[in-house]
């Protein structure tokens, strides 16, 4: 039977790839978007043919928007993929004050997923089945990267804690809870925060320094999420999955580049380093 799958932040990047993967499997997929209704509606048309695909405007971490979303959904949620998040560059477009940005990071990236879980989990428990997948990050969720935005990492660390805590509470329930921590995925968010600010040579150097010498494709993360929502994944209840292709166990591949101050062989200044922010709190 088709499942009802809710994917937040499903209009681009990993979210879009996840929507497409579940839709291809014949599930009913409902995804949220923050802006650009035209793009969201285009996605629903492009993916029609399997299960139902519908888009819903949503402002994660705002209580009224949470209530409106749950009231608008056409049915109960069987699978929740908490993918929507804000990054350093994207949040700067909407929030000018640095202290307000700190609050927004935590509200959107960690409190918003908590609220959604509180809204859909009781129904899952009552119906006797459900999957919750939280999309965290290798930065904060698994490892620390000096020089990157500290509150961004804090928000992802909170999301992995939420996963483990919730998994402990539901250990004897039919609902599975897991987190996925991607590494450097080729998404619009990564391009905006990191890749677009690099010279062509610096980008090649960055990609060469990553595990396997390449960026991760969004479809690779989507395939993992889809598998985690299958029947055979229950043994991973509570798992925080390192989906960074090895960056989580070797974060120095990036931090060494930042701390040396220059890219090898390019002579590029240190402020071209990925995600470079002033060190400190």
Main beta sheet: 7 strands, parallel
**Helical amount among residues, as a percent range?**
40-55%
Number of helical regions:
11
Sheet with the most strands: spatial strand order: 3-2-1-4-5-6-7
Structure description:
This protein is of the alpha/beta class and 281 residues long. It has a single domain, classed as 3-Layer(aba) Sandwich (Rossmann fold), CATH 3.40.50. It has eleven helices and seven strands. Strands 3-2-1-4-5-6-7 form a seven-stranded parallel sheet, sandwiched between helices. Helix 2 links the parallel strand 2 and strand 3. Helix 5 packs parallel to helix 7. The C terminus is likely disordered.
In short:
The chain has 11 helices and 7 strands. The protein is an alpha/beta fold and 281 residues long. Helix 5 packs parallel to helix 7.
């Amino acid at each position: 039977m088709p499942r009802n799958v809710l994917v937040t932040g499903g209009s681009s990047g990993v979210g879009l790839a996840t929507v497409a993967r579940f839709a291809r499997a014949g599930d009913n997929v409902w995804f949220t978007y923050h802006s650009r209704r035209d793009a969201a509606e285009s996605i629903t048309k492009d993916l029609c043919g399997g299960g139902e695909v519908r888009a819903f405007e949503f402002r994660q971490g705002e209580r009224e928007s949470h209530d409106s979303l749950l009231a608008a959904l056409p049915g109960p949620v069987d699978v929740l993929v908490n993918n929507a998040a804000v990054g350093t560059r994207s949040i700067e477009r909407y929030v000018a004050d640095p202290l307000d940005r700190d609050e927004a990071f935590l509200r959107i990236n960690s409190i918003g997923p908590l609220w959604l879980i509180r809204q859909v989990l009781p129904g899952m428990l009552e119906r006797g089945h459900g999957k919750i997948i939280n999309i965290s990050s290798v930065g904060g969720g698994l490892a620390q990267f000096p020089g990157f935005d500290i509150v961004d990492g804090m928000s992802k660390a909170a999301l992995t804690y939420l996963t483990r805590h919730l998994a402990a509470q539901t250990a004897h329930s039919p609902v599975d809870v897991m987190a996925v921590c991607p590494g450097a995925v080729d998404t619009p968010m990564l391009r905006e925060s990191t890749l677009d600010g690099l010279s062509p040579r610096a980008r090649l150097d960055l990609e060469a320094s990553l595990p396997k010498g390449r960026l991760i494709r969004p479809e690779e993360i989507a395939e993992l999420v889809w598998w985690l929502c299958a029947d055979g994944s229950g043994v991973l209840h509570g798992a925080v999955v390192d989906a960074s292709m090895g960056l989580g166990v070797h974060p120095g591949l990036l931090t060494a580049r930042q701390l040396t101050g220059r890219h090898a062989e390019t002579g590029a200044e240190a402020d071209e380093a990925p995600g470079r922010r002033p060190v400190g709190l």
